[in-house]
Design a protein that fits this description.
The chain has 257 residues and is of the alpha/beta class. It folds into two domains: 4-197, 2-enoyl-CoA Hydratase, Chain A, domain 1 (Alpha-Beta Complex); 201-247. 45% of the residues lie in helices and 15% in strands. It has helices spanning 28-42, 75-82, 84-91, 108-114, 142-150, 152-161, 167-172, 185-197, 201-214, 219-233, 237-247; strands at residues 4-9, 12-17, 49-54, 97-101, 104-106, 118-122, 126-128, 165-166, 178-180. It has a six-stranded mixed β-sheet, sandwiched between helices. Strand 2, helix 1 and strand 3 form a beta-alpha-beta unit. The protein starts with a strand and ends in a 10-residue tail after the last helix.
Length: 257
């Protein structure tokens, strides 16, 4: 598939943005290919975790300005048509998503990195919002995602001042789960993804959904919602296996069902 490489490592699907000459800058074609690749990869029930990374020296440098005309005169409609499906596919993915950030994640690329569930960053990685530098506002979900990850004040600091964020600093403030040497990035991302793939997939993804919903719910409503979802999840094969393993004092073997 043009623009996105696909690979498998057991139960882990690996998607690589593959436009290294532009540092994987976003175009309608690239994001369309990403949405299709996520759907195709997760259409296989044996895939139980995903990794998203970038080819070459960067994860994603943001919008490819040369391709902006392809969005049409109505920019909002164009972005929702061409870009939103890829972001939604990652955010609502039926399996956990690990993002392995190599090099720069700038502008919309920063937004894309946050669309996954956990970020592993190479030591050389950097994050920058960029937008106010060119008199624009953050987009592609940044104003929704970033404050929820690192808090309002730090999010505004990054958005208003446009200071690059190193991988180490990103870890300190909670944006990144771990920072590793560049040569070990994919090894560490795979180790994390394999760990997630071995887990009870339905319960993990339902947990993510509850966390998302909690941003807009009252304590009482979320209290009830957790129990309602629990009543459904507890009937799954993995939940039954988990209870049996606990009683039998052995390690559970989950199948994602």
């Amino acid at each position: 598939m043009a623009g996105v490489k696909r690979a498998r490592d057991g139960a882990v699907g690996i998607l690589t943005l593959d436009e290294p000459a532009s540092l994987n800058a976003m175009t309608p074609d690239l994001l369309g290919a990403l949405a299709a690749a996520v759907a195709e990869m997760t259409g296989d029930d044996d895939v139980r975790a995903l990794i998203l990374t970038g080819a070459g020296r960067g994860f994603c440098s943001g919008q490819n300005l040369k391709a902006s005309e392809a969005l049409g005169e109505d920019i909002a409609a164009g972005v929702m048509r061409f870009y939103w499906p890829a972001f939604r596919a990652l955010r609502e993915c039926r399996v956990p998503v690990v993002v392995a950030v190599n090099g720069v994640a700038a502008g919309g690329g920063f937004s894309l990195a946050m669309a996954g569930d956990m970020i592993v960053a190479a030591r050389s990685a950097s994050f920058i919002q960029v937008f106010s530098r060119i008199a624009l506002v953050p987009d592609l979900g940044s104003t929704w995602l970033l404050p929820r990850l690192i808090g309002r004040q730090r999010a505004l600091e990054l958005m208003l001042l446009n200071e690059p964020l190193t991988a180490e600093r990103a870890q300190e403030i909670g944006l990144v789960r771990e920072v590793v040497d560049d040569a070990k990035l994919m090894d560490e991302a795979l180790a994390l993804a394999r760990r997630l793939a071995d887990g009870p997939t339905r319960a993990l993804v339902a947990t993510r959904a509850l966390v998302e919903e909690s941003e807009h719910a009252t304590y009482e409503a979320q209290f009830r919602r957790e129990i309602e979802l629990q009543a459904t999840i507890r009937k799954s094969a993995d939940a039954i296996e988990g209870r049996n393993a606990f009683v039998e004092k052995r390690k559970a073997k989950f199948t994602g069902r």
